[in-house]
Amino acid sequence: VCLTCCSRDVMVKINQICHKNSVKFFTGDVFGYHGYMFADLGEHEFVEEKTKVAKVSPGVEDGPDTKKAKLDSAETTMVKK
């Protein structure tokens, strides 16, 4: 359910009904330069993109940064949460 331009009391009442029935609820409004958005998603799954970390083998490079893991921005993996 998406809701906008309603009073706070109406938004709260509709959100309670949606929450009780496991229905996702979104509401928001804009006032000139300012606005707000609220989402009650309850139990839900989503996917997050994570950058893979490449480990550097010892002795390949010199210097203090060799022990730090390096990020390879070309490789990412999707993690379901």
Strand and helix map with partners:
Blueprint: E1 2-4, H1 8-20, E2 25-31, E3 34-40, E4 47-54, E5 70-80
Parallel strand pairs: 1-2
Antiparallel strand pairs: 2-3, 4-5
Please give a structural write-up.
By secondary structure, the protein is α+β, with helices and mostly antiparallel strands. The chain has one helix spanning 8-20; strands spanning 2-4, 25-31, 34-40, 47-54, 70-80. The chain contains 1 helix and 5 strands; from the N terminus they run βαββββ. It has a 3-stranded mixed beta sheet, with helices on one face. The two termini are 23 Å apart.
Number of strands: 5
Could you give the order of strands across the largest sheet? 1-2-3
- The H-and-E topology, N to C, reads as EHEEEE
What is the arithmetic mean of pLDDT?
Answer: 82
Strand proportion, as a percent range, falls in: 35-45%
Note the gap between the termini.
23 Å
The total tally of domains equals 1
Identify low-pLDDT runs. none
Largest sheet: 3 strands, mixed
Structural class: alpha+beta
Rg, please? 23 Å
> How helical, in percent, are the residues?
10-25%
- Principal-axes shape call: elongated
The helix count comes to 1
Region (Disordered): 57-81
Protein name: SAE1 enzyme
Biased composition (Basic and acidic residues): 64-73
InterPro entries: Ubiquitin-activating_enz (IPR035985)
